[in-house]
Amino acid sequence: MHTSSDVVARLCGVVKRYGHLTALDGVDLVLQRGELLAVLGPNGAGKSTSISLLLGLIRPDGGRAELFGMDPQQIDARRRIGVMLQSAMLPLTLRVGELLRLVASYYPNPRTLEESAALAGVTDLLQRPYGKLSGGQQRRVQFALALCGRPELVFLDEPTVGMDIDARRKLWSAMRALVAEGCSVVLTTHYLEEAEALAQRVVVMAKGRVLSEGSVDALRAQVPLARIRCVTDLDATAVSTWPQVTSAEREGVRLRISTGAPENVLRRLLEADASLCELEVQRAGLAEAFTELTREENAEQEAA
Ligand SMILES: Nc1ncnc2c1ncn2[C@@H]1O[C@H](COP(=O)(O)OP(=O)(O)OP(=O)(O)O)[C@@H](O)[C@H]1O
């Protein structure tokens, strides 16, 4: 059991409306000290709205948002967080080193310039004007700004958008280094492999509500699907109608099947095609679990 002092941020029954649109419809969310929480969900689910509420940028219409047990607008709470939002609006003419010094000066116990730059991998960019950097380089600088104040909690809203694979991997290891220091991280992302690689806990949102919450493994277990891949001529549409087959799709010479009963489907596959080869069976990843969860949500809404 966690004590309340382990809770660094919290939304309690939060409702947020924009005119007739209910962006958040009673959201509860708790972030513990030292954990990386990934908030997932399709476009418009309410992820950014939840973060804006925790940052005190907007106010709830119902319920309550708390940062370190305080109102998120209190300066004492804000001094303990770092933020990387989707749009940064930073002065384009300042050099990266100047920006880092400026933002660090808002904090009581900031990292040194060198430490922040090394953590975010921007040491070779310090003399460059921010506006002259590539999109991916600017994202890395924004990450450096988020961590330069030695915050206890960092909000990262889709941090790796526009980054190449190498830059993304580097950011992942920097996030892991932050968490190893005891920093908490709230990460929103559309890259499920990112959540799978980094998160201790995942919250899935859709249409302003929390659909599911738990560890990556627990989320996966909610959708006990396996993935079968093999080289076969069998028709994907026909296979998709087999009992216990959730979906079947062709990928070139391969067939890719999702099923809750892999043994049964395998038996039938091997019987149906004696020349089937290159067989692979894997348990479902977060991507399948997520698709399945949000599909159920859509089906319920359509039925209602
Ligand atoms: N300032 C605003 N005025 C009106 N509607 C808004 C405003 N901000 C958000 N919304 C609406 O609230 C809902 C939730 O938006 P939000 O940005 O939180 O979603 P999200 O999960 O972050 O989506 P994305 O993955 O696209 O970033 C959407 O329907 C959006 O159109």
From TrEMBL:
**Domain ABC transporter: residue ranges:** 9-232
What InterPro entries does the database record attribute to this sequence?
AAA+_ATPase, ABC_transporter-like_ATP-bd, ABC_transporter-like_CS, ABC_transporter_ATP-binding, P-loop_NTPase
Protein name per UniProt: ABC transporter ATP-binding protein
Which PROSITE patterns would you find in this protein's record? ABC_TRANSPORTER_1, ABC_TRANSPORTER_2
What keywords does the record list, in alphabetical order?
ATP-binding, Nucleotide-binding, Transport
Q: Which organism is it from?
A: Dyella humi
Q: In Gene Ontology terms, what is one molecular function of this protein? A: ATP binding
Please give one Pfam family short name.
Answer: ABC_tran
**What Gene3D superfamilies is this protein classified in?**
P-loop containing nucleotide triphosphate hydrolases
Instruction: Kindly list the residue ranges recorded as spanning the membrane.
Output: none
Lineage of the organism? Bacteria, Pseudomonadati, Pseudomonadota, Gammaproteobacteria, Lysobacterales
Could you name the domain of life of the organism this protein comes from?
Answer: Bacteria
